[in-house]
Known about the structure:
Layout: H1 13-24, E1 46-50, E2 56-61, E3 65-71, E4 74-80, E5 87-94, H2 101-115, E6 120-126, E7 132-139, E8 147-156, E9 159-168, H3 172-184, E10 187-188
Antiparallel strand pairs: 1-2, 2-10, 3-4, 4-5, 5-9, 6-7, 7-8, 8-9
Amino acid sequence: MSIRVNPSRTLCVTAIAMLVLAVLHDPCFAQAGKGSRAATPAGPGMQKVVTQQASFVLYIPKGWKAQESADGQAFQVTASDPSGRSSVFLSTGAASQGENVTALAKREAAKLGRAARDLEIRSAFASRDGSSLTFDGTYSPPKRGKTEFRSWVSLQGGQSTCARIEAPAGQLNAVRPALLTVLSNIRVMKGAVAPRLRQPPSGCSWFPTA
């Protein structure tokens, strides 16, 4: 499996952030804490959820489910709609020593490939400073059928962050605003991330969003 970044299609972080700003008005993630608020207004029909181990706080539509898990030193959360076919995923934790953002993207893509052999990466875009990468494609996880996704990965100091939105093939564009709203409202509780990791500066995104 390979992920090739096309230089002619490379997008800088600022351009990506501006694009999402136009969609969500405020793409930044707010770190949980006393007096903190969600980055994007949750709106009617949204409910506040704290995950099992209290590592994350989310605002999700009524009927959705949120599930926290761990993968090594990474904390993960998945929020899924009632059908289980549209979802939002976020993982943050210690970066592997010497790993760059392309290797991180390949590792995340490999996880999808293990879930479905028909994984297809359609495009990949890297930030100019090499700290983040966006890629999208399709795969067919068990019992869910053909699924379209967009993923973001970033490295900041010793921290890696991965996020993904997905929906049935052909439907991602239609549900993208709702999925990005959920994603932008995920907050990491203080003390949830391994001590060696640095929290992102207040008011900044964990990763570029588009």
